[in-house]
Design a protein that fits this description.
single chain, 320 residues, mainly alpha, two-stranded parallel ribbon, 17 helices, 67% helix, 2% strand, globular, FA_desaturase_dom, transmembrane, transmembrane helix
């Protein structure tokens, strides 16, 4: 499955020639291996440092390391996302393997996410068909908005949904086609069994290792990931053009590295066949067409927060 629709090609195709798009869309194993190894190696190094610090110096001194680990673990969303597009490696097997590994760590079943994301690309910013809009609501107060920005609600909702799929065997969300529902159920059950096995092993050991190097960081990392994800489309037009309905945010090299170049998000939506490592080059070719270009995530987060407040006030004003 490649996440590029005929409509996308008609709308965005004029920005690049077919030859340019073909050159940019070439897949290569090397960039994916380098990015994957550095991301996972960073998690291993920081995780080891957390455990050693807690064992020798106490839990409180490990807090800064846990925060860093949170960023790294939560942002495994990025290799999962890229693997859903099958653009990390030339090999489908390697893409699926990396996708499942990353998805398992962040608690977001890979096959389910791939189908969810496929519809997101097909129907970006369509309030009746985009799963990201169907799956979210405008927070009704600043308190609820602040909670939404922590990402904890979203993490809890997808965990509950996965367990519901695993336990009941029923999949009713509209973005999962009938012929894929059994796959989603099998996947949810496999993930749930792995989590159960890890829980039993941790109790039997006994050890809190996974709690401090994985679970606590995963929860804390949502507070960075969620504002980042809100920046992708919040406040953008609800049109078919990726250059209008998606935001590119300019940020530092470190963020781009661990976000797998997804801050170039308008480019990604316009040409989803282009691998992550080619997005900076694509940006240089199409930047003048992108309507929403964010000057860093702090400023964009203030913009998205303000948009949510305006949307809430507008909804309240039109409610009888």
């Amino acid at each position: 499955m490649t996440m590029e629709t005929h409509a996308d090609r008609l709308i965005e195709g004029r920005a690049l020639t077919p030859v340019q798009l073909k050159e940019l869309s070439v897949r290569s194993n090397a960039p994916g291996l380098v990015r994957s190894i550095t991301h996972y190696a960073a998690i291993a190094v920081i995780g080891t440092s957390i455990w050693l610090t807690m064992a020798t110096d106490g839990r409180w001194l490990a807090v800064p390391l846990i925060a860093i680990q949170g960023y790294l673990v939560a942002f495994l969303f990025m290799p999962m996302h890229e693997a859903a597009h099958k653009t990390v490696f030339r090999s489908r097997f390697l893409n699926v393997g990396l996708g499942h590994l990353s998805a398992l760590i962040i608690g977001y079943p890979y096959e389910y996410y791939t189908l969810f994301h496929w519809d997101h690309h097909r129907f970006t910013q369509d309030p009746t068909r985009d799963p990201e809009l169907l799956n979210g609501t405008i927070p009704t107060s600043d308190t609820r908005l602040a909670i939404a920005y922590t990402g904890i609600q979203q993490l809890a909702k997808r965990t509950v949904l996965m367990l519901r799929h695993a336990i009941t065997g029923n999949v009713v969300v509209p973005w999962i086609p009938e012929n894929k529902r059994s796959l989603v159920v099998r996947e949810a059950r496999a993930y749930a069994l792995i989590y159960l096995w890890l829980l039993i092993a941790s109790i039997a050991w006994p050890t809190t290792l996974l709690l401090w190097i994985w679970l606590v960081p995963l929860v804390l990392g949502q507070m960075i990931l969620r504002p980042y994800l809100f920046a992708e489309h919040t406040g953008c037009e609800r049109t078919r053009s990726a250059f209008e309905n998606t935001r590119t945010t300019y940020t530092g090299a470190l963020t781009k590295w661990f976000a797998w170049n997804m801050p170039f998000h308008a480019e990604h939506h316009a040409y989803p066949s282009v691998p992550f490592h080619a997005l900076p080059k694509l940006n240089a070719m199409v930047a003048d067409r992108i309507v929403h270009q964010g000057p860093g995530y702090r400023k964009v987060t203030r913009q998205t927060w303000a948009w949510f407040r305006r949307a809430r006030e507008s909804a309240a004003a039109t409610t009888p």
